[in-house]
Design goal:
single chain, 331 residues, alpha+beta, three-stranded antiparallel sheet, 10 strands, disordered N terminus
Amino acid sequence: MKGLLSEPTTSRVFISPTKTNGNWSERLHQYQRCLLCPVCNASICRLKTSNTPKNPGRQYYKCPTRDQNYFKWADEVNPNQLIDVPNCGGCSAGACRVRRETIGPKAGRILFMCRVKEGEGSCGYRVWQDELEMSTSSQSTNNCDDLLTLLETMDVKDHVAMRQAAEATFTAMDHLPFGHQDFKNCVNELIHCASSLSEIEQSMHTNDSYQRLVEHCSRERTRLEEINCVHAETTYTVTNKKKHLKDLHKEISSTLDWLFRIEAELSCFDVEMRDIELGMEQISRDKEELEGKYSIAFKELEETKKLFERKEAEFDAAKAAYYRARALLRG
């Protein structure tokens, strides 16, 4: 089978330990997403493209070792089988050589080594995969902790500065070989809530707004409960109608003598079904709208309640301080 060697499909940046003057330090390096041959456990499979009439343009992995015949289509490879191979951290000669230990106490562990073989000018770079991942994971955790500590000390009103600090941390974390989308989403949600909280605090004028929100939330909740009941009943009706409709179709195919009667009944059910589905669509839209209104009202209620509780706490503290100051003045 003829094929052309393709470029690596994934290339990202990460921190890897490198040896400089006998000491291990941190440097920024690229790494490649590769498949380690599961037969020889010492060679990176080459990604090639098939040019055969049967599989034109289909990519496949093949071990470059001559005495190995390992072959696997790329679309049949489990993503968990791929590993991140770093560039050499000592001499930057390119992607490291890889070896999986198969015997001894280190069996199963993967070792990254300088691309240049020993005795041919190798820089001596060697690092275990799990140790490399542990170092990058530690750095990611530190970045997350630092950002969380900073956000906790910032005023929620200064959400613009919070956004700038978060973006700076996200940029640094993008250089690590781990996905942090969940953490980013949580931070963005926190900043969004801080912005909403600030806007609500600014728009709050009197205590009457809190009571109006309570009443509005109660009304919306009642309407939501009502529409939920209607939606459940309609869904049950639609389910039964669909089942009946399916049974009628089966009966048409098996009972030719009853064809005309069943077709007439089927037509009636189709019309009724369309009317019900149209009604259900309207009910679903109303339900979704009410859910949105209720969610917004509930969030506003919760935020306003928290603000009033905090204002009351601040007032109590100020009042206590005032009485202490007055007592000291009289004394």
